[in-house]
Amino acid sequence: MNQDLGALCAGAARALAEAERPVLEAHGLSMWQYVVLSALSPGAAPSQLALAQQIHYDKTRLIALLDALVAAGLVSRSPDPSDRRARVVRLTDLGAQRHAAVRDAIRAVEERLLTGLRPEERRALRAGLAHLAHSG
């Protein structure tokens, strides 16, 4: 059967989300909270708006998401010295540690799901998905 790419990606996304859910729950995170930690892992976001745009998340809903991460000690928000209206968002040390632990556990889940694919097939799959994700 030759399914459309959209249907295949939707099915793969559901399977990944279900497989990753126990990992996230064990670390006290939702999928969107993990997305925020991942986005902040390379460095601070210059503003909450920039972060919302980066992760394709509604800026009005981001505040509650960040509030929970701040309350958990995983993220900090501070006024931007050049624009006091903007808030710079960054991982705390605890947030960086939690992100690393969850990322490692998720990579183990991914490896289990990809069992049966040769290394070059895994690389091709990741490259193809990255191309699709960044083509829009």
Provide key terms for this protein.
single chain; 136 residues; mainly alpha; two-stranded antiparallel sheet
Description:
- By secondary structure, the protein is mainly α.
- 65% of the residues lie in helices and 11% in strands.
- The protein is built from six helices and two strands; from the N terminus they run ααααββαα.
- The protein has helices spanning 5-26, 31-40, 48-55, 59-71, 93-113, 119-133; strands at residues 75-80, 83-91.
- Strands 1-2 form a two-stranded antiparallel ribbon.
- A hairpin with a 2-residue loop joins strand 1 and strand 2 (83-91).
- Helix 1 (5-26) crosses helix 5.
- The two termini are 27 Å apart.
**Number of DSSP strands?**
2
This entry's quaternary arrangement is single chain
Point out poorly predicted stretches: none
Largest beta sheet: strand ordering: 1-2
Q: What distance lies between the first and last C-alpha atoms, to the nearest angstrom?
A: 27 Å
Largest sheet: 2 strands, antiparallel
Q: State Rg.
A: 17 Å
Average of the residue pLDDT scores: 93
Backbone structural class: mainly alpha
**Beta-strand level of the residues, as a percent range?**
5-15%
**Approximately how much helix is present in the residues?**
55-70%
Q: Secondary-structure element order, as H and E?
A: HHHHEEHH
| Count of discrete alpha- or pi-helical segments spanning 4 or more residues | 6
Q: Could you say which overall geometry the principal axes of the C-alpha atoms support? A: globular
